[in-house]
Every structure is written in C-alpha cells, then in structure tokens.
Amino acid sequence: xxxxxxxxxxxxxxxxxxxxxxxxxxxxxxxxxxxxxxxxxxxxxxxxxxxxxxxxxxxxxxxxxxxxxxxxxxxxxxxxxxxxxxxxxxxxxxxxxxxxxxxxxxxxxxxxxxxxxxxx
Length: 120
Prior knowledge:
The protein has 120 residues and is mainly β.
C-alpha cells in the first residue's frame, strides 16, 4: 500500500481528510458543490463536520433556499462524504470558507475560497 500525502507543510500530522474541499468559482445564479471526504475506517462513530463562511458564520444556520448540507457514508471504502451545496449563487457568497472535522480525539480543518462572477 502506498499512501501519497500532499502537504505544503508539516503542520497537518493528523490528516483526517482524504480529500479536502477545493477552491471553486461559479457565475451568479449558478450552483456549486464543495466536497470533503474523511476516512472512517479508524473512527468508532461519524465525525462531526462544520462548515463556516469567513471566521465565524456557521453555515448550518444558513441552510435553506441557497445552501444545503449533505453527508453520506460509503461502506465499501469506509469514507464519509460531506458536501456543501450552493444554489442560485449570489455575489455576497464570494469569500473564504472553512470545513472543520472533529472526532473524539482529533481535529482537522481545511480552508477554501468561493468566487462568484457576475453573469456576462
């Protein structure tokens, strides 16, 4: 088994993420999904995932017309998939976002950016 870890620095020894959310861009009115995958093989129960915009806005409080949160578990690969789904994107949605994952004894977070372009 070969495990390839791409870390820009050594400040991420835990690495709960199998796949981190990537930066994204979308046109006003469009949809975009950010995905985070978390290894579940060594976890006794599902990790707790929180999505934030900016520093403090917990997106679970914003779920509704423009924003949905989904999660699922793939038994075969033992990987949890967490998704932040944005529909009918607005210019105000542009900015920095963060995905935080915590388990009983581990914590990891990942930052990503969304750019919303004006429709031409």
